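Hi R.,

Here's the chain you asked about this morning:
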Amino acid sequence: MCLGIPMKVIEVAGPGRALCANGDVWVEIDTLLVGDVAPGEWLMTFLGAAREKMDEVSALRSRDALSALEAIMNGGEVDIEAAFADLIDREPQLPEHLRSGAPN
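And the predicted structure, written out as tokens:
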């Protein structure tokens, strides 16, 4: 399984490359799939490559959810409703591009 990691662009490292940070971890990321990036932008990354640009609120929400999963896996206490606030009190939805093929 591959988890997406939200990362903030620190600097452009060359064509199709950016130095990005996830907390104290800095990684050079392939940005060819998302086009030009600028310092301060947030990217959802998978295995060293950016797959989409995202807003800061979504990036931090994703980071909180990943931190909660890590805490759960390590036996820690987690406020599930705070960590996954965007999922509370709503039905899961398929992405738009998958809805046409879904049974009713």
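Helices lie at 56-73, 80-83, 96-99.

Let me know if you need anything else.
M.
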